[in-house]
Amino acid sequence: MRPAHECYIQLSFLTFTNQTVAEPIGRVPYNRKLYEAMNSFMKFLFRGRRPTFQLRCLNVFPTHIIRLPEGVKFNIRELKTCGRVPAVLKIMSSVLNESCFPIKHINQHYLDDLDDPFVKDAEELTFTRLAKSANLFEILQNLPFLKVNFLSRYRKYDTEELITFIKNILENDDTVVAPNGQFKAMQISYRTYIEKMGPESVEAAYVLKIEVV
């Protein structure tokens, strides 16, 4: 029995700033398996292009299923993931160009991954989530990275805590100076989401930025 309408699988593009409007890029008839449609889209996107792509940031979600044409490689500056960094790198290693290691910026969620060699070799580290019970200031002061960004969605720290933290940074040479002899930069953001009437939400961010130069 044929459907009353023509059915298609469509590839669309969503921008980070406007995720409500999808721009169609291509489509194929819905008469094949999904993985075949994905392969068709990947060939459409990458065929005839240079084998290595330069990316500022590669954002990988644990639920992503990526089927790239053979030979495609990425040079990246930042790896961003809400999954475990070792697991993500194990999966993505075949499509990352050797020249992008060590990755300069790791944006991740798990403190346990700080001991991973790929994470430790980064110049910049971003925490986009941290457990409530974690001692933020003790952790930040002992990180070896040149630049540290911390985004907290769980709790806010009072003025006295922040002032004490800043004083400890400025008074402790081992904290201020990274292992390579350069000065550290730190940024702490507290992000809260305020629900409005309807599906939209407003993000309010409070930023403390510390740069010792």
From TrEMBL:
<protein>
    <recommendedName>
        <fullName>DUF38 domain-containing protein</fullName>
    </recommendedName>
</protein>
<dbReference type="InterPro" id="IPR021942">
    <property type="entry name" value="DUF3557"/>
</dbReference>
<dbReference type="Pfam" id="PF12078">
    <property type="entry name" value="DUF3557"/>
</dbReference>
